Amino acid sequence: MNNIFAFGIIIFLGFLGAYLLSRLRVPAVTGYIIIGLLLGVSFLNIISPKVEARLDWLINLALLMIAFSVGGELKKKELAKMGRFIAWIVVSETIFAFLFIFGAVLLAGLDYKVALIIAALGSATAPAATVLVLNELRAKGPLTSTLLACVGIDDAMGITIYSIASSVVQALLSKGGFHMGMVVFSIIFDIVVSIVVGIVAGIVLVYLGKRVKYDTQAVIFTLGTLFFFTGPLYNTWHHYHFSPLLAAMATGFVFVNYSPHSRRIFRNLEFFAYPFYLVYFVLAGAKLQIRYFFKLGIVAIAYLVGRFLGKNAGVFIGGAIGKAPINVRKYAGLGLFSQAGIAIGLALFAANRFPMYSNTIIAIALGTTIITEILGPILTKIAVTRSGEAGGKSKTGGV
Asked: pTM for the whole thing?
Protein backbone atom coordinates (compact mmCIF):
# COMPACT_ATOMS: atom_id res chain seq x y z
CA MET A 1 0.00 0.00 0.00
CA ASN A 2 1.55 3.32 -1.06
CA ASN A 3 1.36 6.39 1.17
CA ILE A 4 -1.15 8.30 -0.96
CA PHE A 5 -3.56 5.35 -1.05
CA ALA A 6 -3.15 4.87 2.72
CA PHE A 7 -3.78 8.59 3.29
CA GLY A 8 -6.92 8.36 1.12
CA ILE A 9 -8.22 5.32 3.00
CA ILE A 10 -7.77 7.07 6.32
CA ILE A 11 -9.50 10.30 5.29
CA PHE A 12 -12.31 8.71 3.25
CA LEU A 13 -13.22 5.86 5.59
CA GLY A 14 -12.49 7.92 8.69
CA PHE A 15 -14.86 10.68 7.67
CA LEU A 16 -17.53 8.34 6.30
CA GLY A 17 -17.45 6.10 9.36
CA ALA A 18 -17.52 8.99 11.82
CA TYR A 19 -20.40 10.56 9.89
CA LEU A 20 -22.45 7.37 10.13
CA LEU A 21 -21.62 6.97 13.82
CA SER A 22 -22.68 10.56 14.45
CA ARG A 23 -26.24 9.43 13.66
CA LEU A 24 -25.94 7.42 16.88
CA ARG A 25 -24.78 10.59 18.69
CA VAL A 26 -21.21 9.33 18.87
CA PRO A 27 -18.79 12.32 19.11
CA ALA A 28 -16.67 12.83 15.99
CA VAL A 29 -13.38 12.23 17.81
CA THR A 30 -14.65 8.94 19.22
CA GLY A 31 -15.90 8.00 15.75
CA TYR A 32 -12.47 8.53 14.21
CA ILE A 33 -10.85 6.41 16.93
CA ILE A 34 -13.39 3.60 16.45
CA ILE A 35 -12.85 3.58 12.68
CA GLY A 36 -9.10 3.52 13.24
CA LEU A 37 -9.54 0.65 15.67
CA LEU A 38 -11.47 -1.33 13.04
CA LEU A 39 -8.88 -0.60 10.34
CA GLY A 40 -5.88 -1.25 12.57
CA VAL A 41 -3.98 -4.17 14.06
CA SER A 42 -6.80 -5.29 16.35
CA PHE A 43 -9.23 -6.13 13.53
CA LEU A 44 -8.82 -5.69 9.76
CA ASN A 45 -5.10 -4.73 9.82
CA ILE A 46 -5.58 -2.53 6.75
CA ILE A 47 -3.57 0.14 8.52
CA SER A 48 -0.67 -2.09 9.50
CA PRO A 49 2.24 -1.08 11.76
CA LYS A 50 4.37 -0.54 8.63
CA VAL A 51 1.80 1.90 7.23
CA GLU A 52 1.58 3.65 10.60
CA ALA A 53 5.35 4.06 10.72
CA ARG A 54 5.40 5.70 7.29
CA LEU A 55 2.66 8.16 8.29
CA ASP A 56 3.86 9.01 11.80
CA TRP A 57 5.18 12.35 10.58
CA LEU A 58 1.56 13.39 9.86
CA ILE A 59 0.77 12.83 13.53
CA ASN A 60 3.62 15.14 14.52
CA LEU A 61 2.36 17.85 12.16
CA ALA A 62 -1.13 17.60 13.62
CA LEU A 63 0.20 17.73 17.18
CA LEU A 64 2.15 20.90 16.48
CA MET A 65 -0.94 22.56 15.00
CA ILE A 66 -3.05 21.47 17.97
CA ALA A 67 -0.49 22.79 20.47
CA PHE A 68 -0.30 26.04 18.49
CA SER A 69 -4.09 26.33 18.70
CA VAL A 70 -4.02 25.65 22.44
CA GLY A 71 -1.62 28.56 22.86
CA GLY A 72 -3.96 30.64 20.73
CA GLU A 73 -6.70 30.16 23.33
CA LEU A 74 -4.60 31.84 26.05
CA LYS A 75 -5.60 35.44 25.45
CA LYS A 76 -4.27 37.83 28.07
CA LYS A 77 -7.43 39.92 28.21
CA GLU A 78 -9.63 36.89 28.79
CA LEU A 79 -7.22 35.47 31.35
CA ALA A 80 -7.31 38.80 33.20
CA LYS A 81 -11.13 38.71 33.25
CA MET A 82 -11.15 35.19 34.63
CA GLY A 83 -12.47 35.12 38.15
CA ARG A 84 -10.13 34.35 41.01
CA PHE A 85 -11.99 31.17 41.88
CA ILE A 86 -11.83 29.95 38.27
CA ALA A 87 -8.06 30.36 38.24
CA TRP A 88 -7.77 28.32 41.42
CA ILE A 89 -10.04 25.61 40.02
CA VAL A 90 -8.18 25.33 36.70
CA VAL A 91 -4.83 24.84 38.41
CA SER A 92 -6.19 22.61 41.15
CA GLU A 93 -8.25 20.22 39.00
CA THR A 94 -5.33 19.67 36.64
CA ILE A 95 -2.77 18.98 39.37
CA PHE A 96 -5.11 16.81 41.45
CA ALA A 97 -6.05 14.76 38.40
CA PHE A 98 -2.35 14.10 37.82
CA LEU A 99 -1.75 13.13 41.46
CA PHE A 100 -4.82 10.92 41.80
CA ILE A 101 -4.18 9.08 38.53
CA PHE A 102 -0.53 8.54 39.45
CA GLY A 103 -1.49 7.09 42.82
CA ALA A 104 -4.29 4.94 41.40
CA VAL A 105 -2.31 3.30 38.57
CA LEU A 106 0.66 2.85 40.88
CA LEU A 107 -1.55 0.92 43.31
CA ALA A 108 -2.86 -1.10 40.37
CA GLY A 109 0.66 -2.36 39.73
CA LEU A 110 1.98 -0.05 37.02
CA ASP A 111 5.69 0.82 37.00
CA TYR A 112 6.23 4.26 38.52
CA LYS A 113 7.98 5.64 35.42
CA VAL A 114 5.17 4.85 33.00
CA ALA A 115 2.70 5.84 35.76
CA LEU A 116 4.16 9.38 35.65
CA ILE A 117 3.55 9.57 31.90
CA ILE A 118 0.03 8.13 32.12
CA ALA A 119 -0.89 10.54 34.92
CA ALA A 120 0.34 13.52 32.88
CA LEU A 121 -1.79 12.43 29.91
CA GLY A 122 -4.93 12.37 32.04
CA SER A 123 -4.62 15.88 33.44
CA ALA A 124 -6.22 17.68 30.47
CA THR A 125 -9.90 17.82 29.47
CA ALA A 126 -11.51 17.47 26.03
CA PRO A 127 -13.34 20.70 25.17
CA ALA A 128 -15.48 19.47 22.27
CA ALA A 129 -17.85 17.15 24.13
CA THR A 130 -18.26 19.56 27.06
CA VAL A 131 -18.93 22.62 24.89
CA LEU A 132 -21.42 20.66 22.76
CA VAL A 133 -23.50 19.72 25.81
CA LEU A 134 -23.42 23.28 27.18
CA ASN A 135 -24.62 24.62 23.84
CA GLU A 136 -27.38 22.03 23.55
CA LEU A 137 -28.67 22.86 27.04
CA ARG A 138 -28.30 26.62 26.45
CA ALA A 139 -26.43 26.64 29.76
CA LYS A 140 -25.53 29.91 31.42
CA GLY A 141 -24.12 30.76 34.83
CA PRO A 142 -21.01 30.44 37.03
CA LEU A 143 -20.76 26.67 36.55
CA THR A 144 -20.91 27.04 32.76
CA SER A 145 -18.29 29.81 32.81
CA THR A 146 -16.04 27.65 34.99
CA LEU A 147 -16.32 24.64 32.67
CA LEU A 148 -15.57 26.75 29.59
CA ALA A 149 -12.53 28.29 31.28
CA CYS A 150 -11.23 24.91 32.45
CA VAL A 151 -11.50 23.14 29.10
CA GLY A 152 -9.96 26.15 27.38
CA ILE A 153 -6.94 26.45 29.64
CA ASP A 154 -6.14 23.10 31.22
CA ASP A 155 -4.81 21.76 27.91
CA ALA A 156 -1.97 24.23 28.38
CA MET A 157 -1.51 22.95 31.92
CA GLY A 158 -1.56 19.40 30.58
CA ILE A 159 1.21 20.08 28.06
CA THR A 160 3.31 21.71 30.78
CA ILE A 161 2.81 18.83 33.22
CA TYR A 162 3.62 16.30 30.50
CA SER A 163 6.83 18.20 29.61
CA ILE A 164 7.94 18.03 33.25
CA ALA A 165 6.93 14.38 33.74
CA SER A 166 8.57 13.21 30.52
CA SER A 167 11.81 14.99 31.45
CA VAL A 168 11.79 13.22 34.82
CA VAL A 169 11.21 9.83 33.18
CA GLN A 170 13.93 10.51 30.62
CA ALA A 171 16.35 11.27 33.44
CA LEU A 172 15.33 8.12 35.29
CA LEU A 173 16.00 6.05 32.17
CA SER A 174 19.37 7.64 31.43
CA LYS A 175 22.43 5.42 31.69
CA GLY A 176 24.21 7.97 33.82
CA GLY A 177 21.97 7.20 36.78
CA PHE A 178 19.66 9.42 38.79
CA HIS A 179 21.13 12.63 40.21
CA MET A 180 18.55 15.02 41.65
CA GLY A 181 20.53 18.16 40.79
CA MET A 182 20.99 17.11 37.18
CA VAL A 183 17.34 16.09 36.88
CA VAL A 184 16.11 19.46 38.13
CA PHE A 185 18.54 21.29 35.87
CA SER A 186 17.52 19.15 32.87
CA ILE A 187 13.82 19.79 33.45
CA ILE A 188 14.25 23.55 33.80
CA PHE A 189 16.64 23.73 30.85
CA ASP A 190 14.34 21.68 28.59
CA ILE A 191 11.30 23.79 29.43
CA VAL A 192 13.06 27.17 29.25
CA VAL A 193 14.69 26.42 25.89
CA SER A 194 11.40 25.14 24.47
CA ILE A 195 9.52 28.25 25.61
CA VAL A 196 12.24 30.60 24.34
CA VAL A 197 12.17 28.92 20.92
CA GLY A 198 8.39 29.31 20.88
CA ILE A 199 8.59 32.98 21.84
CA VAL A 200 11.10 33.66 19.08
CA ALA A 201 8.87 31.88 16.58
CA GLY A 202 5.89 33.92 17.82
CA ILE A 203 7.79 37.18 17.35
CA VAL A 204 8.69 36.16 13.80
CA LEU A 205 5.03 35.35 13.12
CA VAL A 206 3.89 38.72 14.46
CA TYR A 207 6.44 40.47 12.24
CA LEU A 208 5.50 38.50 9.12
CA GLY A 209 1.79 38.86 9.85
CA LYS A 210 2.02 42.60 9.22
CA ARG A 211 3.35 42.03 5.71
CA VAL A 212 0.99 39.53 4.11
CA LYS A 213 -2.15 40.44 2.20
CA TYR A 214 -3.78 37.13 1.34
CA ASP A 215 -5.13 34.31 3.48
CA THR A 216 -3.20 31.65 1.57
CA GLN A 217 0.04 33.50 2.27
CA ALA A 218 -0.91 33.74 5.93
CA VAL A 219 -1.43 29.98 6.26
CA ILE A 220 1.85 29.27 4.45
CA PHE A 221 4.02 31.57 6.55
CA THR A 222 2.30 30.45 9.77
CA LEU A 223 2.92 26.75 9.15
CA GLY A 224 6.39 27.39 7.71
CA THR A 225 7.47 29.39 10.75
CA LEU A 226 5.91 26.91 13.19
CA PHE A 227 7.54 23.86 11.63
CA PHE A 228 10.88 25.58 11.00
CA PHE A 229 11.38 26.59 14.62
CA THR A 230 9.81 23.62 16.41
CA GLY A 231 10.98 20.86 14.05
CA PRO A 232 14.57 20.73 15.40
CA LEU A 233 13.21 20.17 18.92
CA TYR A 234 12.15 16.65 17.92
CA ASN A 235 15.85 15.74 17.86
CA THR A 236 17.93 14.90 20.91
CA TRP A 237 20.62 17.52 21.56
CA HIS A 238 23.46 16.27 23.76
CA HIS A 239 21.07 14.11 25.81
CA TYR A 240 18.54 16.94 26.20
CA HIS A 241 14.98 16.25 25.07
CA PHE A 242 13.11 19.46 24.37
CA SER A 243 9.35 19.86 23.96
CA PRO A 244 8.20 20.91 20.48
CA LEU A 245 4.60 20.96 21.77
CA LEU A 246 5.46 23.41 24.55
CA ALA A 247 7.29 25.56 21.99
CA ALA A 248 4.31 25.47 19.62
CA MET A 249 1.99 26.48 22.47
CA ALA A 250 4.28 29.42 23.36
CA THR A 251 4.26 30.45 19.68
CA GLY A 252 0.48 30.48 19.62
CA PHE A 253 0.35 32.49 22.87
CA VAL A 254 2.69 35.21 21.57
CA PHE A 255 0.96 35.35 18.20
CA VAL A 256 -2.62 35.63 19.49
CA ASN A 257 -1.73 38.33 22.00
CA TYR A 258 0.48 40.55 19.86
CA SER A 259 -0.76 40.22 16.28
CA PRO A 260 -3.91 42.05 15.15
CA HIS A 261 -4.29 39.49 12.36
CA SER A 262 -4.21 36.40 14.57
CA ARG A 263 -7.97 35.79 14.64
CA ARG A 264 -8.22 35.63 10.85
CA ILE A 265 -5.15 33.41 10.55
CA PHE A 266 -6.27 30.97 13.26
CA ARG A 267 -9.64 30.66 11.50
CA ASN A 268 -8.03 29.86 8.15
CA LEU A 269 -5.58 27.46 9.76
CA GLU A 270 -8.46 25.55 11.34
CA PHE A 271 -9.87 24.66 7.91
CA PHE A 272 -6.48 23.57 6.63
CA ALA A 273 -5.57 21.54 9.72
CA TYR A 274 -8.77 19.53 10.15
CA PRO A 275 -7.84 16.69 7.73
CA PHE A 276 -4.61 16.24 9.69
CA TYR A 277 -6.59 16.07 12.94
CA LEU A 278 -8.77 13.36 11.38
CA VAL A 279 -5.70 11.41 10.26
CA TYR A 280 -4.07 11.51 13.66
CA PHE A 281 -7.22 10.33 15.48
CA VAL A 282 -7.70 7.46 13.01
CA LEU A 283 -4.03 6.47 13.26
CA ALA A 284 -4.31 6.64 17.03
CA GLY A 285 -7.19 4.18 16.94
CA ALA A 286 -5.25 1.93 14.57
CA LYS A 287 -2.41 1.72 17.09
CA LEU A 288 -4.69 0.47 19.86
CA GLN A 289 -4.30 -3.25 20.55
CA ILE A 290 -7.66 -4.11 22.07
CA ARG A 291 -6.40 -7.34 23.64
CA TYR A 292 -3.66 -5.46 25.42
CA PHE A 293 -6.21 -2.97 26.71
CA PHE A 294 -8.27 -5.75 28.27
CA LYS A 295 -5.13 -7.21 29.84
CA LEU A 296 -4.68 -3.83 31.51
CA GLY A 297 -8.27 -3.88 32.78
CA ILE A 298 -7.44 -3.19 36.42
CA VAL A 299 -5.01 -0.41 35.49
CA ALA A 300 -7.55 1.16 33.11
CA ILE A 301 -10.25 1.09 35.79
CA ALA A 302 -7.81 2.61 38.29
CA TYR A 303 -6.99 5.33 35.76
CA LEU A 304 -10.66 6.21 35.23
CA VAL A 305 -11.42 6.21 38.96
CA GLY A 306 -8.32 8.28 39.73
CA ARG A 307 -9.15 10.78 37.02
CA PHE A 308 -12.77 11.13 38.16
CA LEU A 309 -11.84 11.57 41.82
CA GLY A 310 -8.93 13.87 41.01
CA LYS A 311 -10.98 16.21 38.86
CA ASN A 312 -13.76 16.42 41.47
CA ALA A 313 -11.38 16.81 44.42
CA GLY A 314 -9.40 19.45 42.55
CA VAL A 315 -12.51 21.44 41.69
CA PHE A 316 -13.81 21.27 45.25
CA ILE A 317 -10.52 22.24 46.88
CA GLY A 318 -9.68 24.92 44.32
CA GLY A 319 -13.22 26.26 44.55
CA ALA A 320 -13.05 26.36 48.33
CA ILE A 321 -9.75 28.29 48.27
CA GLY A 322 -11.10 30.70 45.65
CA LYS A 323 -14.51 30.95 47.38
CA ALA A 324 -16.46 29.71 44.37
CA PRO A 325 -20.26 29.33 44.49
CA ILE A 326 -21.29 26.07 46.15
CA ASN A 327 -22.83 24.67 42.95
CA VAL A 328 -19.54 25.16 41.14
CA ARG A 329 -17.67 23.28 43.85
CA LYS A 330 -20.19 20.44 43.83
CA TYR A 331 -20.77 19.91 40.13
CA ALA A 332 -17.95 21.34 37.99
CA GLY A 333 -15.86 18.20 38.40
CA LEU A 334 -18.57 16.14 36.69
CA GLY A 335 -18.24 18.30 33.58
CA LEU A 336 -14.50 17.69 33.24
CA PHE A 337 -14.47 13.93 32.71
CA SER A 338 -14.23 13.92 28.89
CA GLN A 339 -10.77 13.18 27.53
CA ALA A 340 -9.60 13.46 23.93
CA GLY A 341 -7.77 16.05 21.85
CA ILE A 342 -4.43 16.90 23.40
CA ALA A 343 -4.48 13.82 25.67
CA ILE A 344 -4.41 11.54 22.63
CA GLY A 345 -1.80 13.73 20.99
CA LEU A 346 0.44 13.56 24.04
CA ALA A 347 -0.09 9.80 24.18
CA LEU A 348 1.14 9.38 20.60
CA PHE A 349 4.05 11.70 21.27
CA ALA A 350 4.95 9.79 24.43
CA ALA A 351 4.64 6.42 22.66
CA ASN A 352 7.28 7.52 20.13
CA ARG A 353 9.56 8.99 22.78
CA PHE A 354 9.28 5.99 25.11
CA PRO A 355 8.82 2.97 22.80
CA MET A 356 9.35 0.52 25.69
CA TYR A 357 6.05 1.79 27.17
CA SER A 358 4.19 2.43 23.91
CA ASN A 359 1.68 -0.44 24.19
CA THR A 360 0.70 0.54 27.72
CA ILE A 361 0.45 4.25 26.92
CA ILE A 362 -1.65 3.75 23.79
CA ALA A 363 -3.91 1.11 25.36
CA ILE A 364 -4.75 3.16 28.44
CA ALA A 365 -4.97 6.59 26.79
CA LEU A 366 -7.09 5.51 23.82
CA GLY A 367 -9.12 2.81 25.52
CA THR A 368 -10.19 5.12 28.32
CA THR A 369 -10.84 7.98 25.88
CA ILE A 370 -13.61 5.98 24.22
CA ILE A 371 -15.17 5.46 27.65
CA THR A 372 -14.80 9.07 28.80
CA GLU A 373 -16.21 10.41 25.53
CA ILE A 374 -19.33 8.32 26.12
CA LEU A 375 -19.73 9.05 29.84
CA GLY A 376 -18.41 12.62 29.76
CA PRO A 377 -21.38 14.27 28.00
CA ILE A 378 -23.79 12.41 30.30
CA LEU A 379 -22.00 13.62 33.43
CA THR A 380 -21.83 17.17 32.05
CA LYS A 381 -25.56 17.15 31.44
CA ILE A 382 -26.16 15.94 35.00
CA ALA A 383 -23.92 18.70 36.37
CA VAL A 384 -25.62 21.48 34.41
CA THR A 385 -29.12 20.21 35.16
CA ARG A 386 -28.51 19.80 38.90
CA SER A 387 -26.92 23.23 39.14
CA GLY A 388 -30.01 24.79 37.56
CA GLU A 389 -28.11 26.40 34.70
CA ALA A 390 -29.84 24.57 31.85
CA GLY A 391 -31.78 26.89 29.60
CA GLY A 392 -29.87 29.89 30.90
CA LYS A 393 -31.42 29.70 34.38
CA SER A 394 -28.64 30.06 36.90
CA LYS A 395 -28.74 29.14 40.55
CA THR A 396 -25.46 30.29 41.99
CA GLY A 397 -25.94 28.94 45.49
CA GLY A 398 -23.94 30.06 48.48
CA VAL A 399 -20.23 30.73 48.80
From this structure: 0.74
